[in-house]
Design goal:
The chain is mainly alpha-helical and 154 residues long. The chain has five helices and no strands. Helix 1 runs parallel beside helix 4. The radius of gyration is 34 Å and the shape is elongated. 8% of the residues are buried.
Length: 154
């Protein structure tokens, strides 16, 4: 009797992996990106998905892979899709503007936090300095008392 492994791949998982990788190829993304996506969906590691793809599934989908590569090339070089490209550029610019805004905000917050942190550090150092001065005064008094005792003994 042959027992199924707990981590055996089902037909549905194989199909999801194949469909996703081929879709990512069409869209110009890497296979590694598709493995990461599928891994999240299947609760597996990207390495396991990559191994399954390369060891088993890829061989069954050679024609679909070639078609996806051709579709990617056509999509990338097709000048008739100007409106779509313009929308993508605007979305990229908007995303870039958002990133710049976020980084500027982070820089301001960092500067404020750094200033607050410096002030807190200064306060702690002043308190520590005061404590050390008090401790030094105690030691000096003790040394004087010890010297007095030594003089009294002689």
């Amino acid at each position: 009797m042959k027992a199924n492994r707990q981590d055996a791949w089902t037909k549905e998982e194989d199909q999801l992996l194949a469909d996703t990788v081929i879709d990512y190829i069409k869209k110009g993304h890497t296979q590694l990106e598709s493995f990461k996506y599928v891994a999240d969906q299947l609760n597996r590691t990207p390495a396991a998905c990559g191994f399954r793809w390369n060891a088993t599934i890829r061989k069954r989908y050679t024609k679909a892979i070639e078609a996806a590569k051709q579709a990617r090339k056509q999509f990338q070089y097709d000048g008739s899709d100007q409106q779509s490209q313009s929308i993508q550029l605007n979305e990229s610019k908007s995303t870039l503007d958002q990133a710049i805004h976020w980084l500027e905000k982070l820089k301001k917050e960092s500067t404020v936090d750094s200033s607050k942190s410096d002030q807190q550090l200064n306060r702690r150092l002043l308190l520590e300095n005061e404590r050390l001065h008090q401790e030094l005064a105690v030691y000096e008094t003790l040394i004087k008392n010890i010297k007095k005792l030594i003089d009294d003994i002689h």
